[in-house]
Specification:
Elements (H helix, E strand, L loop, with lengths): L6 E4 L2 E4 L3 H8 L2 E2 L2 H11 L4 H4 L3 E5 L1 H9 L5 E6 L7 H17 L3 E5 L1 H7 L5 H17 L7 E5 L4 H13 L3 H8 L7 H11 L1 H9 L5 E6 L3 H10 L9 E5 L27 H11 L8 H7 L7 H10 L3 H12 L5 H26 L3 H4 E2 L2
Helix pairs in contact: 6-7, 7-17, 8-10, 10-12, 13-17, 15-17
The structure holds tryptophanyl-5'AMP (TYM).
């Protein structure tokens, strides 16, 4: 780990045990407090379980978004994906939440697929491969049910002319040393990756450019993407635009441990949306880190620890929206009435039910791509 830090979070590296309070301080984001939750609830009627449980825990300028909303100025939503392989369950966290926001506020949504970014960053991937992952990943986004009348999916290389023209003035205001410090790059980085962050800034102003007036933009994402938008927030006002606002979540942990981020580098640590039921069962049974005791007798006596148990965390973050049910599971596990095997069985069933329906929706989505994809 660089600089002897206890943990590292950048868009390109997550290492160590992430302390989210410290991370908020380092990045300079605001906590989502009770007052903000109540302000959101005023407009949405209820709160998504990811807000109630603190999975979405930090933000930049949410109050600006709500101030403008209350004045009658609609915002739009923007989020994205770097298409380097199939989607894993962690990616669903910000997208399911974004869908909720779109349903509640009935606002426009732009989804960026950064095939250029992944071609530049991933040594082994060709342009054709990242483009083809972009199409596959687009099917996953459509499968989540975003309203096609209000949703655009943008693959960067299909929109090169629009994107390059907006990115250029952004790139002119960002120095190499800022990019190196923000993304942990060293001198061996290729020059395309240095330029790339200006491309990720484009959808944050795309509606303003199109409509010829400033439109507020809200970006839901996990906290690893914050460095991109920190730079965008610094530069865009100097070009006459609003600063993009954000609402940020913590990570769905990897199977092997509750500390960091589920990422794709190790398939035994990840469940993909394309995994079949047997593979899901095997991965959870074999690899999901348990907060249980070593023997059944000891577990009955001492109970398990749901706070470090990955199966429980996955249920809490993604798969069990019902507060009463999650509380019962938590209590039963903590006092030893529920065993690790029983907890894992609940999770396996939840994931497989979700994935079965998702897989059929993503196949149907292939025929709907033209309703969503935008091209120059
Ligand atoms: P990417 O493809 O790495 O991640 C896509 C989205 O998933 C979030 N994420 C996670 N969320 C919860 N738990 C996890 N374990 C987990 N792993 C990843 C990421 O924060 C992200 O929101 N450069 C971007 C693509 C992009 C983008 C954006 C992302 C372009 N424009 C705007 C967010 C917002 C990327 O490679 O994301």
């Amino acid at each position: 780990m660089k600089n002897n830090n206890d943990f590292v979070v950048t868009p390109y590296e997550v290492q160590g045990k992430v302390d989210y309070n410290k991370l908020m301080e380092r990045f300079g984001t605001e906590p989502i407090d009770q007052a903000l939750l109540e302000r959101i609830r005023k407009h949405t009627g209820d709160l998504h379980f990811m807000l109630r449980r603190g999975t979405f825990f930090t933000h930049r300028d949410m109050n600006f978004i709500l101030d403008e909303w209350e004045k009658g100025n609609k915002y739009y939503l923007y989020t994205g994906r770097g298409p380097s392989e199939d989607i894993h369950l962690g990616h669903l966290v910000p997208w399911i939440f974004t869908k909720w926001l779109q349903d509640k506020f009935k606002v426009k949504f732009i989804f960026q697929l950064t095939d250029d970014e992944k071609f530049l960053i991933e040594e082994k991937l060709s342009k054709e491969e990242t483009y083809s992952f972009a199409i596959e990943n687009a099917c996953d986004v459509i499968a989540l049910g975003f309203d096609h009348k209000n949703t655009e999916i943008i693959i960067d290389t299909d929109n090169a002319q629009t994107f390059y023209n907006i990115a250029l003035p952004v790139a002119k205001k960002i120095t190499y040393s800022t990019v190196k410090a923000s993304f942990g790059f060293d001198n061996s980085i290729n020059i395309g990756s240095v330029f790339y962050t200006s491309i990720q800034a484009v959808p944050a102003v795309l509606e303003s450019v199109r409509q010829g007036k400033n439109i507020p933009c809200l970006i839901p994402h996990a906290i690893d993407q914050d460095p991109h938008f920190r730079l965008a927030r610094d530069v865009l006002p100097r070009l006459g635009y609003y600063k993009p606002a954000s609402i940020q979540c913590s990570f769905l942990p990897a199977l092997g441990g509750p500390e960091g981020k589920m990422s794709a580098s190790d398939p035994t640590q990840t469940v993909y949306v394309t995994d079949d039921p047997k593979t899901v069962e095997m991965k959870i049974k074999k690899h999901a880190f348990s907060g249980g005791q070593v023997s059944v007798a000891e577990h009955r006596k001492k109970g398990g620890d749901p706070d470090i148990d990955v199966s429980f965390q996955w249920l809490k973050i993604l798969f069990e929206p019902d507060d009463k049910k999650i509380k019962t599971i938590e209590e039963d596990y903590r006092n030893g009435d529920m065993l690790t095997g029983e907890l894992k069985a609940i999770l396996i069933e939840k994931i497989n039910t979700f994935l079965e329906s998702h897989r059929s929706k993503r196949e149907k989505a292939r025929d709907q791509l033209d309703n969503y994809l935008v091209k120059d």
